[in-house]
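Take a careful look at the sequence and tokenised backbone pasted below. I need to know what the token row says about the fold.
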Amino acid sequence: MRNTVDNIEQKLKVLVAKNAIPETSPELIISSSRPIEDLGMDSMQIINLFATIEVEFDITIFEDSFFPEAIETFEGLLEMVKVSIKNQ
């Protein structure tokens, strides 16, 4: 299935929700959700999330695609994934 914007967002919500501590529902993930503060992720879970994103979306998150905002909010993470898909 082609990665549409809505499809990317929904798949990413599922991945983020599964990595949250405790695991949460994808429906509770909103643009302003903060992976560390709101979802209880630590640095190892963020790294695991990035690895899972690379596999799920068949992308490589290169250094020039990564920006600090990507781990501040779900919206930032979504933007990073979209940029990485576009640059493949």
